[in-house]
From TrEMBL:
Superkingdom assignment: Eukaryota
Protein name, entry field: Variable surface protein
Keywords: Membrane, Transmembrane, Transmembrane helix
Transmembrane segments: 284-304
Amino acid sequence: MSDKKEFILDKIKDKYKFIGDSTFYSIYREFSKKCHEYIMDKNESCAKDSLISSSVSPKVSKLLKELYSNLYRIYKTIKRYSNDYFEEMESEVKNMGCLYLKHWLYDQITINELQETEINELFEGWEQYIKKELEHFSLKHCEFYNLKENEINRIKKIHVLNKILHYNGNNSESFIKDKCIYMDYFGEGLDEFISSINKCSIEEYTYNYCKELKEFLNTCKDDNEFSGISIYDENTKSEAETARKYFLFSEKYKNEQLYMYVKDRELLNFVKTSHFLSNKSTTIAATSVVGSAIGLSSIFYYFYKVILNDIFKYKYCIKIYKKYISKLLL
């Protein structure tokens, strides 16, 4: 699966029905709707042709205008000025709309095969043309930081992990038994989440990827019901126990200890008993409280439960586990 387009949300939802049926995907799909398709809108959400300089490349200019239109729709929905755009999804748009829009934009970068120079032009265009135009919107977690392509791919993995943990509570058994085609990708999301927290604890705050991570962490706080990962600090972690959430792992971020929880036991067991680990599994075990729980035991438990019980159906997974076992025996 070396093709980066295999990891866009439209591909993932084709494989996992619960993603395709989610409000996350419904909102994401709405972002691709053209502004002139809203009859009651009267083109109000459309960006003016004069908004973007003619010197901007056509692909980037098109994405900037679509970004403007989507931010306008989010704002009007949150402020309850209109229910034309995200009908019956207003609450999730208010809490997660900008995060979902970022994921949509990152997928568009992949779909349109933007090069590094064009990606830089896109984020510079956000600063120069869109941000100033919409400053009065004051949307939370809606800053678009200038990221490189590899940083975009890293944060996308974390986004997908978060939604898998949010929507997969009733699908864990079928999800585990499914093909392994995306399992490495989801596992890398967990690895990336933990390593990014560690990295951004020592990086300068001006580092754009760390700014983006901080926005994601803030989105997962405040008991956000639409986030698969709930984050608490030392003073608030008792609230997680009161809310009957289940402890996943803990990491130190800058000068505070963060505690990560999931919303139900099935999700916690899913993480522990699936091969939700990639080549960085030793990093997880060394840095997280739950590392020992989702380390050796999960690998061999899953190997026994799935591979040996249905060897022919899951024979394509053997190579994946071979690399884990080989590493552990070194």
